[in-house]
Amino acid sequence: MKKLLTLLSILLFAFQLQAQDLVLLSQIKTTNGKVKSFESDLNNTMVRPKKTETQYGTLYFVKPDEFSALFTNGKFMTVNAKKIKMDLGLFHGTFKMRDGGMMQSLAHIFLYGFQGRIQDLANETGYSLTTKTEGEFHVITANIIKKKIIGIGYKKVVFKYYTDTLLLKEIVLYDYSGNQDSYVISNVKYDVPIDPKTFQF
Question: What does pTM read for this prediction?
């Protein structure tokens, strides 16, 4: 039954997206899938009901399943094939990827976004997709189809890719509590060697 529902969800996504949208998603996946690694500046803005905060740092990514966001204030999130370790205020600790849950969901959003695998993310997690072009960016919005009863996770995720290069610029997360987190990368160096120790803990 679960497999049937998953298949129906995939078919629903296909009907919702126009042919040109599917082509765009495929092109974004192909382009970003060629990136083996990157290092970039990272700007994280956290919008809360009563305040807004911004932190800065460096982002490291190695295909297919390693990344580390290291902020100048000591906050961090590091992901490898087996575990997630983070200290992002409310979220802190070490978590096993196989345990699933919100931490795995968060890691997958970033990893799939870095690799342009938005359609895969939608198929696996139950998001519907819409696309549009705003200025120099293709904007892909993923909305959760069925609201989770306990309201854990992200009800919407927005990915922005450059229209000319199709490479990633920004990921924005919206949770069920009205919080919004944006992650903007800049000064990106592609296919550079990254010290493996960056992802070890």
Answer: 0.88
